Amino acid sequence: MPLPRYRYPSDTSDLEWALLKALLPTPACQTPKGGAPEKWPRRRVVDAIRYITDNGAK
14-51: b or e for each residue (b if 16 or more CB lie within 10 Å)? Predict the structure, then answer.
């Protein structure tokens, strides 16, 4: 069962995500060396980092 998706003011907009996505390295699972698939979508990870940066760990 997927987690519910909440929207927060600190979440990335589509325009911000388009700019950030280009700056992230290629996932290891898509390289010739290989690797495990990512467990969480990258955009949600970035949103989580921005949420903690904006609100702090209370």
Answer: eeeeeeeeeeeeeeeeeeeeeeeeeeeeebeebbeebe
- The reported pLDDT for the residue numbered 1 is 55
Residue whose C-alpha is closest to residue 24's, from 6, 10, 9, 45: 45
Entry field: residues in the chain:
58
Element (H, E) at 51: helix 42-55
Q: What is the pLDDT of residue 3?
A: 61
